[in-house]
Amino acid sequence: MTEETKATENSDCSEQNDRQQQIVDMGSSTVKTKDGTIHTLTIVGQIEGHQEAASGAKTTKYEHVLPLLTAVEESSDVDGLLILLNTMGGDIEAGLAIAEMISGMKKPTVSLVLGGGHSIGVPLAVAAKESFIVPSGAMTIHPVRLNGLVIGVSQTFHYFERIQDRICAFVTRNSRISREDFEHLMLNTGEMAADVGSVIYGEEAVRMGLIDHLGGLSDALACLHERMRAEKKRTEEQSS
Hints:
single chain; alpha/beta; 8 helices; 23% strand
């Protein structure tokens, strides 16, 4: 075996180890394809914000995701971002921060709801340039909830309204659903036994315009590849 062959094998082994460690540490991976390099980000469990989640809970930490998104946007080695979602929701501020970061990216982005994109997971699902949901995927839309001490004064309810307005504005700005329809889903009293809100599934989410497409992993990847090719062509035309 030549030294060059050994060096190539060592490099391939090192890259594979780096990818495996990336999956373990961050729930993400980077894969090279014929159309460019795709970074895959998983948003799972509870979105953890300023307060740590209970011990043993599966979480997505916003202090990890924000710099990672910045690195993806700035990296010349990454051409597209795939976001896989199976989240119960969580911290509103953290979820909106991540969603705003994703929606503000220039690189091609595609999201796929697997299992669930509940609560603050809804803005995260629609933040990408194109969104997908599997037929069995579910999304829970409900009014803002806060844990801990809540002071029962008019200022508190006004604060709730302003938070809900921010969420409604983001979702309707980044999807095709009307504000009226989204607020109706959020304030529905006949859907959930012990709560206000709605649970919608794959086909319904697409029909209402909340999610762009019904499909699985291969569909989301095909869309991302198409967007990456279009972006590459646009860049080449601008540089020529």
